[in-house]
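Researcher: I've been going back and forth with a colleague about how TRAP transporter substrate-binding protein might be arranged in three dimensions. Neither of us has a model we trust, so I'd like an independent prediction. The organism is Parasulfitobacter algicola, in case that matters for your notes. Sequence below.
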Amino acid sequence: MGVKNMTRTMIAAIFSIAIGIFGTTTYAKDVTINLGYAAAETSSYGVLAAEFEKLAEEYSGGTIDVKVRCCGQLMGEDEAFKAMQLGTVDMHIITGNNVSPHFPLMDAFVLPYIFQDKDHAYRILEGKVGDDFAAKLNAATNVHLLTFGFVGDRDFYNSRNPITSIDDMAGLKVRVPKNQVMIDTFAEFGAVPIPLPWADTPTALQTGTVEGADNGTSFIKSQKFYEIMPYFTALEHFSYFSPLFASDRLMNKLDEDQRDAVIRAARDAGLAQKAEMSSQIDGIRVFLTTDGGMETAEFDRSGFIAAAQRVQDKYAAEKGQEFSDLVQAIRAAGNTN
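Model: Here is an independent structure prediction for TRAP transporter substrate-binding protein. You can compare it with whatever you and your colleague have in mind.
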């Protein structure tokens, strides 16, 4: 063997030994995630998005860069879920009732007064029922539900009269999201529901096209509806949550460590949002009915609850066995005392 060949052989051997000892180093590719939501930056959506941005970048060691787009910059909620199915949007926060057209089982959580209180809601969503639901949604739609986050209540406001009982809802023109459960609920309350996209709601309220609406308590403040609506009612007729969703295209683009970072960041951001928003709600209601200038009144909730029960029973009977089973699981978890 010549000297040159011997040298090549030795170099190759040394190289092979080095690989065996030290292995090869694989560096994760940097990934940019565009995360959208349709509400104001000061809303509960903003709390969740900002916390996720911070944690995902931290947990990934800087290989993930989250770009948050508030206020409908990417698109509205009605279009966002479909866009994630197509892979044209990475991540979006969407209120549960706007997911129902794409995954009807979500309506079980939209049903009026379906949760007895917040502990009941979190037992469901943060437990096996919530995990199974997220798995079913992913199997049916290819969209990943990463966290349910904070559970709030939708409160009611209107320009016509104080609400003291269900009788005061008669004939009231109420903006509702394009969700059949919500439409049917307000009809059962005696109101005239008018389905409108979120983007059209402020103008409809200002022009009198509708006389009232409901939103999460924090949204009534962040959207400054107290400036145009004189009457406030802490009706709490619908619970709401606004999960953080991710497209399958995004999740498949991440390496294993990045995927784990995104999942962990979403979970921890949801818990942080829950703690932050839970601490604010009572103060927001005080603001709305004092400095915000809205008038409120004591009201009899019994008529609303009876109407809600009729809506629950109707949907449980008509929506099929899987829907009925989920409603029964939710009800059973509320009967733990």
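Researcher: What would you highlight for our discussion?
Model: I'd start with this: Residues 10-26 have pLDDT under 50 and may be disordered. After that, consider the following. The beta strands are 31-36, 64-69, 91-93, 143-147, 151-158, 173-176, 192-195, 212-216, 231-241, 244-247.
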